[in-house]
Amino acid sequence: MKKLVSLLLLFTFGLSSCEKDDICDPNTPTTPRLVITFYDITNQTKVRIVPNLKVIGEGMTEGIVFNETAVDSTKYITSASTVSLPLKVNDTTVTYKLIYDSNGTNTNTDVLTINYGKKDEYVSRACGYKTTFDIKSFFPTDPDGDTVWMTLVQLNQTNIDSENETHIKVYY
To answer: What is the structure's pLDDT at 105?
Structure first.
């Protein structure tokens, strides 16, 4: 009987030394993206859909993928009032071309350059680190020399620590 109790006790201690699986819960906050929301310039409280918006990061040949199920160039195009764009975790500046009506007849390209600070935060052993950002400045420009389609660009939230709020508001 003593041997059985000793064996059970040894087995119990053996199990208690096992660690739980190191799996990062999908609900754990990770490095957030920059959230840009588009508004009507004449009614600045009304969100506005940008038709056929394509966003291309500096150094990219294609755009940001908005529709992963598409198999052709339409995967880089969205018609939405809000877009979420990644910031570089190994740099402090990012530049995006925002192309209005990219596959239409009224195509217009504006460029948005964002300068930011960054801070790495330890999440857990399973999830590793996440990076949060602090927008220092941003510069909208018109590379084509035609009229800008982004009439007004405003910083709404300097700290980027979640994707639950708009960081930059664009009026057009």
So the answer is: 87
With contact defined as beta carbons under 8 Å apart, do 115 and 137 qualify? yes
Mean pLDDT in consecutive groups of 10 residues from the start of the chain, 172 residues = 51 51 83 97 96 95 93 93 96 96 91 97 92 96 87 96 95 96
Tell me which residue of 56, 119, 59 sits closest to 89, measured CA to CA: 119
pLDDT score of 144:
78
Residue 77, token pair as written in the block: 């195009």
Question: Which residue is associated with the tokens 């018109």?
Answer: 142
What phi and psi values does residue 48 have, to the nearest 5 degrees?
Answer: -135, 135
Neighbours of 38 (CB within 10 A): 23
Please provide residue 135's backbone torsions phi and psi, each rounded to the nearest 5 degrees. -70, 125
First CA to last CA across the chain, in angstroms? Answer: 82
pTM of the full structure: 0.83
Q: How far apart are CA 121 and CA 111, in angstroms?
A: 30
Q: Within 10 Å of residue 32's Cβ, how many Cβ atoms?
A: 21
Edge-first strand order for the sheet with 128-141 is 77-80, 50-57, 93-100, 108-124, 128-141, 159-160
